[in-house]
Amino acid sequence: MKYALINGKVLNGHKDMEVETGKTIFIENEKIVAIEPYRNLDKSYQIIDLQGKYILPGLINMHVHLAGNGKPQKKQKDNEKTVKMLLSNPLSQRITYKVVSNFAKIELMSGVTTIRTVGGIAHYDSKLRDEILKGKVIGPRIVASNEGISVSHGHMAGSVAIAAHNNEEALALVDKAKSQNVDLIKLMITGGVLDAKEKGVPGELKMPPEMVKAVCDKAHQLGYKVAAHVESSEGVRVALENGVDSIEHGAKLDDEMIALFKEKKAFLCTTISPALPFALFDPSISNASEIEKYNGELVFNGIIDCAKQALENDIPVVLGNDVGCPWVSQYDFWRELYYFHKYIGVSNCFALYTATSLASKYVGLEDVTGTIDIGKEADMIVVSENPLDDLKALRHVEKVFTRGKLIDHPKVKINKIVETELDKYL
């Protein structure tokens, strides 16, 4: 289709963005071909009157697990056992892939036009990426890592990551990822809140530094960036010293770590959403144990400290909501922008820039998406209110454009319990 979008208030996604009026956005062959005052058009264009609503770049969620639904849970599940069952026969594999595909579609319907997956089931993320590109299914642009690399009894081992018992096995997993044509490599370097057995050890170092280095060296030789799950200061240091390109989550930094970030040209992916329920909810609501509550607060504060320190020291920060964790739904990425504003103290404009233009740069798609500019693919969303005034405007998306294709009045099914409890922290 060829579209002419008229009467919209444009937020272009740039760092200094302001509302622009009086401009028509022309879309042709998936791309933005002109942004200029309205002119007479030939009949091949379909005119869409935005009626004074706000149009901005589609959001980019930099930390997604497509295997999870985000539902609250009363007790921990055996994820390894569940995944083994899901992959046990062809029928269950087809059903599981369909579930993953549906979760990706929910991301798109909520205004997220690009996702970066950092741990998934089998090769489903890259398979889905390719089917979306071919137009076989509807979904966002996917930058895929497939299964992460963990260690025995390490974070997510057996579910969305595979355990490597030595360097040779870890390097074999890099080769496996390459054979699946992934876009990046994901390491699980430390533990997390849900797999910590004692207070104070949610970010316990699990992966030996020499394994981190071996994987990073090989990944870089093959042209891949490496992202790492890290929830402790020690983990941040080990990751950066040995070649990791992005720290996912983070922890309090010291001067040496700040210097390493800059030396390695690494960036931080902040994820406030998954830690917030464990840290701030009453345990009667979150169903967190005493240990999980304590460790949740530790990780929550560490993520906030890390993001603040990064911004103060000109270290790039992008946003992901670790979707799939308890209380983090596939349609709720807008909350991460809101938390970034509330807990880190950035402006609404900077939060929006971080989740669009800046994210496109650090996901390697700066020339493709992330801003409303001529030559970019038409990945855009329309909302009624101005997100520069209130980021909650992003929770109700009225139109989504994905590669120039229009989805009008997208709908997602909301979990009312999750919505009610999370809204208390807006």
UniProtKB/TrEMBL annotation:
Annotated InterPro entries: Amidohydro-rel, Metal-dep_hydrolase_composite, Metal_Hydrolase, Metallo-dep_Hydrolase, OTAase-like
Recorded GO MF terms: hydrolase activity, acting on carbon-nitrogen (but not peptide) bonds
Top-rank taxon, per record: Bacteria
SUPFAM superfamilies: Composite domain of metallo-dependent hydrolases, Metallo-dependent hydrolases
Pfam family membership, one: Amidohydro_1
Organism: Faecalibacillus faecis
Alphabetized PANTHER family for the sequence: ALPHA-D-RIBOSE 1-METHYLPHOSPHONATE 5-TRIPHOSPHATE DIPHOSPHATASE (PTHR43135)
UniProt-recorded name of the protein: Peptidase
Signal peptide: none
Domain Amidohydrolase-related stretches: 54-406
